[in-house]
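Entry:
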Amino acid sequence: MTLAEADHSDAETAPDPGGRERRCIVTGQVLPEARLLRFVVSPDGMVVPDVEAKLPGRGIWVSAQRAAIAKAAAKSLFAKAAKGPARAAADLAETAEGRIVERMLALVGLARRAGELVLGFDQVEKALRAPKPPPLIVEAAEAAPDGRRKLQAAATSKSHVPFVIGNLSSAELSLALKRENVVHAALKPGRIAERLIFEAGRLEGFRPLRAWVWDGFSASEAGV
């Protein structure tokens, strides 16, 4: 099995956290994991974000919001939850944002290696007009409104409602895919697309989504 195949297998078999709930140490609210981030205390006493919820140790859950993480760090709420020493860096929220972005870009790269990614405006437009259009569109934040309207028209021609992620930059996407000027991409249905939508929801607490879905569509209408 190649590394790409192993990565794809992990993505397909990873448990879906969408149904589990945890309590935020800042607000006290019990929320689904899709709206939270897990943190753990490292052996040297530092609080670190655990985006994939796989690191060993007692999990500490905080709403996936920049302000909530900053408050938890400033008010020593991590130490209180850990019932022991726990030092949170002042830039913990920025670190958490970076980890989510890294995770999303890794998923985009995984989709490319697995043959589940369509790249380029023309190819995405063609895919949207196909009998089985993609459920997820990734547009760079720099995407031109005119191109966006054309893709929306292609989608509505099939009465299709794709989910649109628009808060990753062209530079970030280009680096992840090792291509220049990546602006438009689409993902085929499957576990990778589902995980990317999941992470995009958490990133919204740090970077507002440019568009969850195109004009005239509600997020509840979109699905994988």
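The chain is about 40% helix and 15% strand.
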